[in-house]
Amino acid sequence: MKLYDTARAPNPRRVRIFLAEKGLEVPTEQIDLNKAEQKSEAFRAVNPLQQTPVLVLDDGTALAESVAICRYFEELKPEPRLFGETMLARALVEMWNRRIEQHLFSPVLLAFRHAHPAMREREKPQIAELAETSKAKAADFLHYLDGELAGHVFIAGDSFSIADITALVAVDFLKLARIDMPADVPHLSDWHARVVARPSIGA
Q1: Tens digit of each residue's pLDDT (9 = 90 or more) over 100-154
Q2: 161 phi and psi, to 5 degrees?
Q3: How many domains would you assign to the chain?
């Protein structure tokens, strides 16, 4: 198998952290988005949507979308379980991962795409109002998340999960999206410190 990766992009980073938590190593090929390598004929044959990450299995099956790839590796190597140990835990992880994607990750990416000068040629038109609205939505959710983290150690409970990976990548992308981390989120700050101390985060 081979993983098509992009070193600085947030979604591929989710998969790299997940693999590091599992202790798995997979051959990779870098796709440089700044050089538009995702638009090449060879890569479009792998993923017509021209996005990374993509996992190509030995039989030629191409799995795109970061969570789908992570689910594959969860089945391949169940321990440590990053989608939840029990039926209830799995449902909670799914719920929180979706919440993070919809209410934090997506607004942060929209703010980046519609405000950052580096995206001017790739996001046409850039909509300044959308960027500002997305920044406000992200900030509101960060405050909500801070309140939730007052009651448990990790995003979906007391165990580290893919929801923490998604949240960590989104929070770390705030700077590039030019969104300030709120000053009054002590529980979120404590969570972030716990998570970034994990060896996998540097993957």
Answers
A1: 999 999 999 999 999 999 898 889 999 999 999 999 999 999 999 999 999 999 9
A2: -145, 180
A3: 2
Residue 125: give its domain's CATH number. 1.20.1050.10
Phi, psi (deg, nearest 5) at residue 3: -105, 120
Considering the domain architecture, whether residues 163 and 184 belong to the same structural domain is answered as yes
198 in a domain, yes or no?
A: yes
The model's pTM is 0.96
Q: Can you give the pLDDT at residue 121?
A: 86
Domain closes at, from 76, 98, 120 = 76
Other C-beta atoms closer than 10 Å to the C-beta of 153 total 13
pLDDT tens for each residue of 13-58:
999 999 999 999 999 999 999 899 999 999 999 999 999 999 999 9
